[in-house]
Amino acid sequence: MPRKRTPTEKAEISGQATHNKARFADRKQSKKVSSLGEPSAFLDENEQAAFEGIRKIYPWLKESDRIHVEMTSSLYAQFVSGARAEMSLAAMNQLRLLISAMGGNPSDISKITMDDDESDDPAAKYFQ
């Protein structure tokens, strides 16, 4: 079974697009795909907070990922609210699968590189 196709924006964030230029050179990303947007009105307060957290953690998600994010928000809100004991094993597994489907499993996150600019730390001069 072939590997899943990495979204272009995720590839740019993780550095894959730079590392494998030929693989991503001919990709045409639809300009009509908009950002994830605000949480849906039907989500309760905890689910909306989970939605916001997911949007911050996974910045490559777009409007086309919305149903996954809403489902993940609902399950994650249950998980963190203390209702874990009532969650079925199937629900926890579904949460894990949804996070993985959005590219959020640890092996994917470890491929994302961030700038390590330590010169911006104002307290650094006091600890040298």
TrEMBL record:
Biased composition (Basic and acidic residues): 1-12
Region (Disordered): 1-38, 108-128
Superkingdom as given in the UniProt entry: Bacteria
Protein name as catalogued: Phage terminase, small subunit
Origin species: Cohaesibacter gelatinilyticus
